[in-house]
Each structure stands twice: as C-alpha cells, then as structure tokens.
Amino acid sequence: MNTWNLKKTLLASAMMSILALTNGCGGGGGGSSSGGNSGSDTPTVTTEEVDVSSVTPLPNNLTCNRGADLIEEQKKVCDLRIYHVMVSTFQNGDDNINYKKVGYGPGPFNGDIAGITKAVPFIKSLNMNAVLSTPFMKSCELSGNCKELDSTGYFVSDYGSVDPHFGTDNDVITLANTLHNEGMYFFGDIAMGHMKTDNLKTNVHGVAGTLTTTNTCLNLGGTYTNNDSKQICAKFPESLSFFTNYMYTYTQKWHLDGWRFDQGYQVPVDNQRDILISLKDVATQDSTLGLAFAEIWGGNEKIKAAAITGKKDSGIESAFAFNTRYAIVKTFATQEWASEIDGQKKSASTLLDEFKDEQNVFKPEEEGVNIYPISFITNHDLVRFADLVRRAEYHKQISANQSKARTKAALSYLASLSGPISNFYGEEIGQSFTKYPDQPELNDRGDNHCFKEGGNYICDDNVSRIEGKIKDFEPYEKEVLDYFTKLMSLRAQMPALSMGRTDLLVQTADDYLVVRKQYSENNAVKSTVLYGVNVSENKNVILAIEPKDIIKDWSDDDTLNDPITGTIYERSYLQKESLDENGEVILDADGNHKMEDDLSSPFVFRVELKPLSSVYLVKTGTVRNNKI
Q1: In 287-347, which residue ranges form alpha helices assigned H by DSSP?
Q2: Which end of the chain has fewer beta carbons closer than 10 Å to its terminal beta carbon, N or C?
Q3: How far is CA 536 from the centre of its chain?
Q4: In angstroms, rounded to a whole number, what is the distance separating the alpha carbons of residues 305 and 261?
C-alpha cells in the first residue's frame, strides 16, 4: 500500500469537509458588495495536493532581477517602496489655501504640501521609504479664476514657483527635509511636454534657456495637433536647454531625489537622456538618488520605445509597468473596461506570462544599462482596486463578498515583485469611492466611464482622487492596513523580495503560482523567500514542499516559517507500520495496522494555500521571533 498517497487522500477529504462548512457562510473575503452576484453564489471548494520539490528557471534580465551582487545605488532603487500621493486631495495642512471645491474628481480638494508633511509619521509606519507627490508647481494664482484641471498640477503656468494653493518653497523644503531625516526619499512630478497657456512663463529664475512652445505635440509613435486654446506643448529640442538646466537647479532647490516624467513620450528619448544626465549630476554632487521614471500609457513595447530603451545614449532607466498593473487587476478583480470583456477569466498564467514578457521586452540592449520597471496597482488616473472588485462582481466575473481577500491577495503579489513598487494612497486600507456606480456608462466625454454628481463628472480617470485617510479606520480598513504594513516590513527585511531572482516552483494555468525569490552576494545566498498565491475561488491547495533542492542553504535542522502569521510548519514524513519490541505489527482498537512517521524517509512541509490567499515562507529564524 502507498501510505504516502493514502495520507494525502485522507487529508484532502478532511479539508474538503471543513471548507464546505466554512465557505457556506460566504467566507473568502469580507467587505460589503453591491455587485450583481449574491453570497449564495459562493462556489464549492475542492482540495488538491501538489509536490513542490524542483526549480524551473525563469528569465531574469533586469537590474533588480539579477539576484546577485548589486552595487549600493542599484540596491537603493530596487528597494524603493513609494507612497504616491495627490497633493490636492491627500491631506489638509492649511485651511487658508487649497483648491477646495475646484478640481477634477470627487475631491474634496483640500490637500497641500503641509498636509503631506503631517502624514509622514503615518507613511513611515507603513514601512514605506519614499514619497512621490503629483506636481506642486504653480498653475493658478490664489485669487485667480481657477479651473478643474489646475488642481491636478499637470497644467503648469510657472515651473519656478510653488502653487500657492499648495504652499511655498519653504513648505516643499520642509517636507523634503522631514522625509530625509526619516531616511526616506522624496520624488517630484513634472509634465514637460504640455502646459497651460494662460500666464505661461517661458523663462524661470535661475534657469538658463527658454521654454519654446508649439501646437504640434508628441504622442506615442507620432504627433498630434493641439486644438485646445487653454493648453500648449513644449517644442524639442528647442526646449531641451531649459529643462536640463531646470532639472539641475530645482532638484537642488527643493531637495528632491528624482522626478516622475508625466506623459514621458512627449519628450524625445534622446532628450530624456540629456535631462537624466543633468539629474545624475545633482545626485553626484548632493548624494541624492537621481532617479527619473516615466509614465507611458502603453504596453511593454511602447514603454521601451518611448522611455526605457535599454541603450546607453537614449531614454531613461525607469517607468511605471502598466502591463504588470493590468495583469494584477485582471487576475484579482477586473480591468476598467470590464463591460467590454464580460466573463474575463481569472488565471495565474496571466501573472506569469506578464512577468516573462516584461523580463524579455525590457532586457537591456547594451551591457551596463540599468532597467527598473516600477510595479503598481493604482494611480490618480485609474480606478481604485476595491471599486474594480465591485465592477467585477457586477459583471459576474467573480463571486460576491470577496473584496478583502482579493485586495490582500493583490497587495501580496505586488509586494513579491523584484524592483521598485508604488502604492497610491488609500490602497493600503482598501479605500473605495462608494458613491461610484458599479458600472458607470460611457458618456459624451469620450471613451470614458462617468457619472454626474452635482454638475461634476466623476469618471474612471479621476475617481481615485478622494480624500486621504490616515486615522480612524474601520475594522475592514484596519485589517487590510495591518496586512499591508507587514508585507512592507517583510520586503524591507528580505532583499530576496526587492532584488531577488525569481524562479518557478509550481504553477497551474488557472489556479495558483509558487515561486522562489533568492538573492546572493559573493556566491553566498543572503536571502531566500518562497511565495505562493492562489487566484482560484474554488480550489484549496496543499503545497507539499520538499526544501532541500529548492533552498540552497538548507540544513537538516531547519524548518519553514510564515513570517506574516508567525506559523512554524512541522515536518511531514512517510508513514510506516508501528512494531512492538518483538517486531510484530501493532493493531489499533479497530484491528487496523497502527501507523507512525518514518523518520528515516524524506520529509515535506505541508502548507495550505486557501482560495484567494497567499503565503510567504522563509527558514525559521530568518525573521526575528519568526513573525513580522
């Protein structure tokens, strides 16, 4: 008799019985739902066991995926845990300024620079180590006739001044110094390709060169004619001297560690390199990070062509990884255009396929070029994750009442990815704009889902712009917050997560994915983490992990530990018949052969991966007290 398989069968049977009871109550997520499905749609859960005992190499072509011997500057970038805020909506630090009711989105627009400074202790408590703010340069006078887009910061009229609705130069410097004193970084944001026409200053104090404008604007792969009299575009290379000098002067003035380039494709890739060189000159002089990263709305090929070319003489080193973002929301919730892809399949292969594509497409063209895609889930132009979960429910792509489980699973996957990551404020608590319909209609503002509230359009591209929350959390929010904080703490302690090589341990196309993250220095393993995620609603997975061949520095005395929960897993052995002192088989009360662990046999660790859950595993003792 194969006692190993018998034990697995009995365990699976028992787990199915337990899960049938627990899931009958709508377990699997928590959180309210107004979607099209009801709790009675909760699927029947089955259980399977899978052996985890070998490693399949994956492509690891980017800087933070090398998994070995990074220099200090590379480590700092790979380890970035960026907290992304929108100045106009995040936090109010001064009631005497702000845009108040003037803005594009739900608002309110009471945010300012002092409000961000006030929130630094909260951001630090999340184990984040950087802040990225939307642009804070002047768009409108404090007493001016301001328009809804002025509060975004992306339609600047004076690059050399801080918008008085947000504060002063001193407020920006105070924020920068506060962050630096906490060992954190501060990144600014700038739209160099487009700006406001009203009162536009083409010369800025302390900056050599003149901003030259045109109505022929750069777009992805071409140009377009600007017909909006309120906006205009920068002309390159005529404006290059202005922006290279501006980057040098104002990075120093405001004590910044780098910049996000909004709509980066509006600056030619060769000119991006010149601007990056200017930024690097400041980094060398002032010991800042000197990182430039682009926002390119497009797939990996378009991002490569427009920003991270992988060449020494063009483009920059970093950009937001939109394809990875869409893979995450597609797998755990849905994409914004859910109505057009009703029935979208949730599949672990979506995550793995995108990982491979990113590694292959962004592979540097030349030796010595760093490439740092920034993984994220939400920004100020996208729908928040919790609202996408509601949209997925509405279209019957998922079962109801799973918001919490899906949010935690998505955050866990983000935390597992090598390279810098960015979290838009509020996602750490699963924040949602509850007034937003599950599926707004397309309207006359173009191909955009919107609804009207009080004369204002609330749309997919602005609905995330709600007031930030840094205290007085609801129980649901507190649970997600605590989980997120632990994830970031683990990421800070384990370099395998932020700069480790990723290799496959096991994967099924639809249900689950298990990988090994490993970082080494001088041919010695410094950090190993096993990560598994189950994207299925109806399959419970038992991972039978045989560690000797997948954890290189494993010793016979080691055990596995989940540092998020503090669970220490016991070894599971093959079974053998129990014998008495005479060598006779011992029978139990029912006359059956009594079985016991065969300590001389190979052992495994059995780790349960419930539906819509994830697990991080390290060797016991890797994390102090074995728990974050």
Answers
A1: 300-306, 322-332
A2: N
A3: 21
A4: 15
Which residue from 314, 324, 323, 320 is spatially nearest to 364, judged by alpha carbons? 314
With H, G, I as helix, E, B as strand and everything else as coil, classify residue 579.
strand
Q: Give the H or E element holding residue 83.
A: strand 81-85
Distance CA 225, CA 347 (A): 41
Predicted pLDDT of residue 21:
30
| DSSP string computed for 167-211 | --HHHHHHHHHHHHHTT-EEEEEE--SEEE-TT--SS-TT--S--
Estimate to the nearest angstrom the gap between the alpha carbon of 351 and the chain centroid.
Answer: 13
Q: Which two tokens stand for residue 371?
A: 């490439």
Tell whether omega for the bond before 364 is within 30 degrees of 0, i.e. cis.
no
Neighbours of 80 (CB within 10 A): 26
Pairing of strands 524-534, 512-521: antiparallel
Q: Which of helix, strand or coil describes residue 109? A: strand
Q: Say which DSSP state 341 is in.
A: G
90: pLDDT strictly greater than 60: yes
Q: What tokens were used for 403?
A: 């918001």
Provide the token pair at 554: 């494993």
Taking the CA atoms of residue 487, residue 488, residue 493 and residue 499 in that order, the dihedral angle to the nearest 10 degrees is 100
Residue 137's pLDDT band (cuts 50, 70, 90)? very high
Return the bridge partners of 47, or none. Answer: 540
Tokens, residue 34: 């107004």
* φ, ψ at 246 (rounded to 5°): -60, -45
Distance CA 601, CA 599 (A): 5
455 exposure class (CB count in 10 Å sphere: 0-12, 13-18, 19+): exposed
User: What is the rounded CA–CA span in Å between residue 235 and residue 213?
Assistant: 5
Confidence of residue 23 (pLDDT cuts 50, 70, 90): very low
DSSP 362: S
- 301 contacts: CB under 8 Å, gap ≥ 6: 361
Q: Record the pTM.
A: 0.90
For 286, the 3-state DSSP assignment is helix
Distance CA 263, CA 190 (A): 9
Radius of gyration of the chain (CA): 26
Q: DSSP assignment, residue 444?
A: T
Q: Is 541 helix (H, G, I), strand (E, B) or coil?
A: strand
| Secondary structure E strands in 371-445 | 372-376, 421-424, 441-443
pLDDT in tens, 467-504: 999 999 999 999 999 999 999 999 999 999 999 999 99
Q: Report the relative pairing of strands 318-320 and 213-214 from DSSP bridges.
A: unpaired
Please tell me the distance from the alpha carbon of residue 419 to that of residue 76, in angstroms, as a whole number. Answer: 10
Phi, psi of 68 (to 5 degrees): -165, 140
- Condensed to tens digits (0 to 9), the pLDDT of residues 558-596 reads 999 999 999 999 998 877 788 888 888 888 888 888 878
Bridge partner list, 85: 133
Give helix 403-416 / helix 322-332 axis angle, nearest 10°. Answer: 150
Q: How far is CA 222 from CA 269, 294, 302, in A?
A: 13, 18, 12
Amino acid at position 54, single letter: S
Report which of 108, 172, 102 is spatially closest to residue 135, judged by C-alpha positions.
172
How far separated are the first and last CA of the chain, in Å rounded? 43
**Inter-residue contact 393 to 333 (CB < 8 Å):** no
Among all chains, which residue has been given the structure tokens 């899978």? 50
* Token couple for 93: 């630090």
